[in-house]
Sequence to fold (197 residues):
Amino acid sequence: MENKKKNTGIDNTGENNSGNRNSGYENSGNWNSGYWNSGNGNSGNWNSGDGNSGNWNSGYGNSTNRSSGIFCSEEETVRMFNKPTNLKWEEIDHPHFNEFYLNKWISEDEMTDEDKKADPEFYVRKGCLKTYTWKEAWANFWRDTSEENRQKFLNLPNFDPEIFEEITGIKVNQLQSLSGKTVKVEIDGISYEATIK
Fold:
């Protein structure tokens, strides 16, 4: 069997596979005919489990999508904030994570004195790659994303400010209002308010 370009595994017919005997693309697992699988024997795409014919599965033997179970043929509803919902993935108005980064290139003119002290050879590269902790990354994201996107987080089903703070480090104070729940978010000394529908 002829290998295509950029395969590091054996007997791959697709491209950019690091596993073996894949006919799809971008697989790190083995025997996949789908794309972007890290598991094995998937005909679907984006699976981290094995033997899935659906997409985005982390379990195995699933013919449905987005299942973490085993041999499921029906798509599950989504648990949110540790509670079940009656909604499937595509029925939720998801926020985006475009400004979320754990590593970010900082140009020399944007570096702080602390950044320069931590990387004394920054001038050679004209900047530095800065790594953030999980909660620092969330703080940066929450500061940089749009008000509309912040609102989408607050509108998620079962939104729980304590769980949100536990995971992200962002403290959300909840107040009651006549039109619904109004939340006040404070981070880095800046306050944001939004109303949950």
The chain has two domains: 1-76, 103-196. Helices lie at 113-118, 122-125, 134-144, 147-154, 161-168. Residues 175-179 have pLDDT under 50 and may be disordered.
